[in-house]
Amino acid sequence: MRKYKIQPNYILAILFLAFVLYFFANNLHIIEDVLIKNPQSTIEKSIANKIDDANIKIKAINTAYSQNAHLKYSFINLNGFAHLAMGQRTMNDVIKLKNGYLATPREKATDLMQKNGEKTVKLYNDLKSKGIEFLWVQTPGKICEYDKQLPESFNDFSNENINSYLSVLKSNKVPYMDLREEIRKDGLDYYSCFYKTDHHWTLDTAFYAAGKITNVLNKNYRCNIDTYYFDKLNYLSIKYSDWFLGSLGKRVGNIYGSTDDVFVLLPNFSTNLTISLPYEKKILTGTFEDTIIHANQVETKEYFNLNPYAVYYGTDIPLTVQQNHNVSTNKKILIVKDSFMLPVCAFLSLGVSELDTMDLRKYTKESLVAYVEREHPDIVIFSLNPSILIDDQYFKRLGV
Amino acid sequence: MLFSSNIFIFAFLPIVLIIYYIINPKFRNIFLLIASLIFYAWGEPKFVFIMIMSIIANYLFALLIHYVKNRTKKKIYVRLSIAFMLIFNLTIMFIFKYLNFTLSNINNVFGNILPQSNIILPIGISFFTFQAISYVMDVYRGNGEVQKNPLNVGLYISLFPQLIAGPIVRYETVAKEIGTRKETFSEFSEGVQRFIIGLCKKIIIANNMAIIADKTFSTKAFGELSVSFAWLGALAYTFQIFFDFSGYSDMAIGLGKMFGFHFLENFNYPYISKSVSDFWRRWHISLSTWFRDYVYIPLGGSRVNSKPKLVRNLFVVWILTGVWHGANWTFIVWGLMYFVLLAIEKLSGYPNKFKSPVAKGIYQLFTLLCIIGGWVIFRAPDLKYAIKYGMSMFGLNGNPFSDSQATFYFNEYLVLLLAALLFSFPVVRWIKQKLKNKFGENMLHKLEYSVPVVYMALFILAISYLILGAHNPFIYFNF
Is the pLDDT at A280 greater than 90, yes or no? Predict the structure, then answer.
């Protein structure tokens, strides 16, 4: 029998070593970064403290090594391909609905909803006693109450949770609008209101929601907001095809999760805004494009590193104080918001002269009540999506 | 540190390999010792001191026993020294592993009279303690030379490939290799292949099986856990524990080879066992042979002159095996279950007495069912849960036969379940033999050149799971 000099195992060992050393070289900076960020303290320490220090650094290196691994997104896509090949409908805690949309179902939390609902009622009563009007805006969750599209055996309770929360508001006569019902009444296709790969609604749906909120403000809160600003005909819609991989898509990759188109709406009328960002100690003045649009989020197609949904404002900002110099409305509005309301606030800023926005997940300087007492808005609009509605800690920041 | 972690594969391993092979061979042992201590400290730095204490103490015990054995003729001194060594090692294990369990049982019986301690279990304490005992015992028995250099004892006890989850490497197996070993690229290559096999078993199969098992074993409403889903969960755990633990052993054996060490096999397709005795010759071989050589045979083993003594010996070994796995009644009952089954096999002579292949086949199936049932007890958080779960497997909780969850998880993981089933059998060996018979050895050898591509593809797939951050704990870390 002919003897082969190079055994198959040798080739495997060489490939393995090349692979491991290549990634070692390309990941080396991660360890350096962690050590630079956590330098050794020069203060004399006991051995116990030194061990604790070492433990912190080890954990930081482990986390950084997993999160910033070289070619991470290629590996995620490879894994997504394997999941597709095996016909799997779940990956990395993300479920692919029957219609191809990605979602993360929510556990039942009706007791917590009751508790958080009661805190909101307290807030409403507190504001009422101060002469401040209140409106709860319920944004929809990704899974439709009437058409869940979930694979068999999965349950989602986000709608049940919302219903439980809203029932508390209803029984205490707290004014609210349920955008799920508005979507249903207007005959919109529920799932088309969302991105396939993100947990957020589309920017178009956010524009629709801004119009709906404006109608309620004008009708029930005696505002004089011009509905001209909420007519799509007055906007330029720019389409970015296959441009967006949402938060859920980033967890499973674009091969498993597909991609979304993004439509960015820009006003076709003149705008003049001043936006203060007290946390960042910044004041921005100029047009809508100058102050609110973050074009860098859509300039290039970068599925894993950019977030086109955040084209308005760029990110969730703890606090903004906004003035529109081209309109004159009679009420100062504070919107307490999460990321769902990010584009909604952008559109509302075009029709409202005085608008503050607060993200209580990031605004930690004081409670909501303390801020309201100081700034005294005429109306507080409060809105949370179902995933934050179950966050008990969040409601502690209301200050009631 | 986990073998199945980015930091191990892409930082620790390449650094250790590079330094190991570029330094002067005479410094390799000390370097491996330092690397092993870092490896252990990476998980929880303070526990490394416990291991260092164990190394120093057992180094001294071995010297003492060697001295006493050679300088005095009185066996009593040797026995006393061994007793001290055992008391020392087992006390450490007891304090860290069994103290809280003991206290809680005392409190259960007598009311809350004793406070619980907040001692945390150091990873792999059972493995390194048993290795330490093995070192001293093998020196006593003359199965290995006493080490004058404490660093060599340190290396044997802490050697990172097998430190945390075995196999339990006997001192006699590696005694010579600590002093003189020859690393070759051929063996290094075999080590790489074995490491990749283990990594894939762990990450691709075991971790995915864990998703099903975790789902079923998190059930609280047993009336809703369908019969089929309960069985699916039990089967998934049966696969998980095998591919998890044997995957770790493969990685350990592979890593050992990369550094010139040869560890003995720890698994041999246990799920094809024809009897319970056969299963324990194929499952966690290093543990069962450890108990056989250091407990069962010293007690007299099977060559005792009375059946009650044989039963006693089996009972001691299997209660210890159960306890070794953890401080929980589930492990003790699991050990006792095997005591009963093995005692029946040994006393009755079955299944060896069976003549008919049908009877043998039925007994093989019975063995497999016992193994699966045993894993249900092993996986359950407590005995009550194990009983309830077992009842659900037979529809005794008023639970339905099937449900949508069973169907979903079965379909979702079908490919991986089939892979787990397939690789529980010696299928690769069988395919190789078939190819060899059909095409001849030369052709088979040529075909083997495609193997590196397959292995690398599987390795890269395993890495993709790692980077995705999938569910990844090793079951046997807790033991």
Answer: no
Q: Hey, what amino acid is at A118?
A: E
> Is residue B279 packed enough to be buried (19+ CB in 10 Å), middle (13-18) or exposed (0-12)?
buried
The pLDDT of residue B423 is above 90:
yes
* A274's tokens: 């001043």
The helix (run of H) or strand (run of E) holding residue A381 is strand A379-384
User: Letter for the amino acid at B254?
Assistant: G
Give the DSSP letter of residue A264.
Answer: E
Query: Would you give the distance in Å from CA A291 to the centre of its chain?
Result: 20
> What pLDDT does residue B3 have?
87
Strand order, beta sheet including A319-324? A176-178, A133-138, A379-384, A332-336, A354-358, A319-324, A273-277, A282-286
Contact assessment for residue B233 and residue B390, using Cβ atoms and an 8 Å cutoff: no
Residue of B nearest to A155 (CA): B405
Model confidence, pTM: 0.88
**B445 assigned to active site:** no
In the block, tokens 């070492």 appear at A54
Chain A residues whose CB is inside 8 A of the B455 CB are 12
Q: What is the DSSP letter of A312?
A: B
Cβ–Cβ gap A82/B464 under 8 Å: yes
- pLDDT at residue B317, as a whole number: 94
Hey, CA dihedral for A288, A294, A295, A297, is it positive or negative? negative
Q: What crossing angle do the helices spanning A8-37 and B451-468 adopt, rounded to 10°?
A: 20
How close A156 gets to chain B, by Cα (Å)? 14
Distance between CA atoms of residues B411 and A197, nearest Å: 24
Residues facing residue A312 across a β-bridge:
A293
Confidence of residue A39 (pLDDT cuts 50, 70, 90): low
Please state, as a whole number, how many other Cβ atoms lie within 10 Å of the Cβ of residue B94: 14
In chain B, the residue whose alpha carbon lies closest to the alpha carbon of A12 is: B452
CB atoms within 10 A of CB A18: 11
* B85: enclosing H helix or E strand: helix B75-93
Q: Is residue A336 pLDDT above 80, yes or no?
A: yes
The bridge status of strand A94-96 relative to strand A90-91 is antiparallel
Helix, strand, coil fractions of chain B, as percent rounded to 5? 75, 0, 25
Distance, in Å, from the CA atom of B250 to the CA atom of B254, rounded to the nearest integer, reads: 6
C-alpha B206/C-alpha A146 separation (Å) is: 37
Catalytic residue among B262, B284, B325, B445: B325
* Cβ within 8 Å of residue B245, ≥6 positions away: B165, B266, B267, B284, B474, B475, B476
